[in-house]
Backbone:
């Protein structure tokens, strides 16, 4: 038992070091996501190419799935224009070395050939570290149902 108590400071130090590493990783992914959103809103091909993984799978809330090439084409040609991107919730969870999941809720205002889209989405995104840089690997979202009407008092 005496030896166990000697080891406790080592365990506490290891936990603090792991937490600090996770904080640094999450800060890096948060910054990468801010760059992704800015590049998407700008439709900037060079920035999109730098942040999107070559293996990108982007599953829209409509069910349509894009690859890196098809999503970049829609954004750079301005066939789809994201005007606002407002996170209501955004959480990051490191799940393995080089992998961080991002979950939450976002309000998006966009335009395409079909018209204006105001979307209230829950999402799951995957970030992967590739050659020392965080790259956007996957996105899947679903629409939140409209708020239930408030019953009127009689």
Residues:
């Amino acid at each position: 038992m005496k030896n166990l108590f000697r080891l406790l400071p080592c365990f506490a130090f290891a936990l603090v070091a792991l937490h600090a590493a996770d904080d640094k990783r999450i800060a890096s992914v948060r910054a990468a996501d801010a760059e992704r959103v800015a590049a998407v809103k700008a439709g900037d091909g060079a920035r999109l190419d730098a942040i999107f993984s070559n293996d990108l799978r982007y599953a829209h809330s409509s069910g349509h799935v894009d690859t890196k090439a098809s999503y970049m084409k829609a954004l750079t040609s301005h066939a789809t224009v994201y005007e606002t991107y407002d996170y209501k919730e955004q959480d990051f969870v490191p799940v393995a070395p080089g992998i961080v999941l991002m979950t939450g809720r976002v309000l998006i205002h966009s335009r395409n050939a079909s018209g204006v889209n105001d979307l209230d989405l829950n999402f799951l995104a995957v970030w992967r570290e590739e050659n020392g840089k965080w790259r956007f690997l996957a996105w899947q979202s679903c629409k939140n149902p409209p708020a239930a009407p408030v019953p009127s008092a009689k």
Observations:
- Confidence is low (pLDDT under 50) at residues 10-18.
